[in-house]
Amino acid sequence: MKTYLTLCFSLIVFAAFAQTPPPPNAPASAPPQAGAPPQVGAQPNPAVPVPPPGMPPGQPVGASPAPGAPAAAGMSPAGPAAASPAPAAAATATVSPAGAESGVWGPRVLTGNFLIDNFRKGGPVMWPILLISIVALTVVIERIIWWGGRWFRRDPKRIEKVFTAIEVSDVTEASRLCRGSRDPVLRMMWNGLNHQHASLQGALQVAAGIEIKRAGRFLVVMDTLVTLAPLLGLLGTVTGLIRSFSFLGNEELAVQAVTGGIAEALIATACGLGIAIFSLIPFNFFTSRVSNLEFELQTAATNLEVMLEAQQRGEREGVAIESATPSSATRSSI
User: CA-CA distance, 203 to 180, in Å (whole number)?
Assistant: First the structure.
């Protein structure tokens, strides 16, 4: 249980403190100097105007050509008009923080800051909610592993062999088949066969109770968490509303405080309901599995009792017939 608890806590901490994406307002690289050769694989900067072909690299775009310089092919004399789109391109090159959050690096829901921020906004009730979420996740993982192992430990063919051996009055072979098995039904039958001379029914009841207790482990904890999580969410709702209404008298901080309190109430309620829903489905499933196991143990114990009683009754009748036969033969000879 401690191993599963440590593992679940480590997973939650890793998910909360995941690496966040780089900030959207990263400094742009310096523009290349005039006349410098372009770098291999470098992307063109829309903010830096590119001179048209035929213009010297040192001359600014839009300026009139130097006297005596040949006119470029297809170049209009209106230089300032050709350089007018440059400021617009430079303006579009800047990225707003809102656009960076929504489009470039994806929504903030997938980052670790989202979990930490909402945890802080949920108020002090989020700490017990976090604790019961870790316990619930640990119990669910432990029970899944236990029931999965029990599924592989089942041996119905050996159970049939045990009943067949008892039918032919071979109790020793039936006990040998049950010995060392990990199936709970076979373990119960082994206890009953080894204590049949003292108290068969009592041995079967004790062994069945042990197996049911193992199968129903931590079900009380899950039942408590299913009930406790919504109550903690409701407590967070009440504390958030109290915090909201306590700031209504101050006009300057009223809007910000009221919205913060409402956010605290909704976050706590959502977390409490989410934990309860997450724990309710496995709790009902494990409860049904325990009921099925109890029925299987009760059925096997009843069949074992009936078969052993029939065998013992047959042995007693056979002994009585054998003991009565010599006396009748003696009387007839006399």
Answer: 17
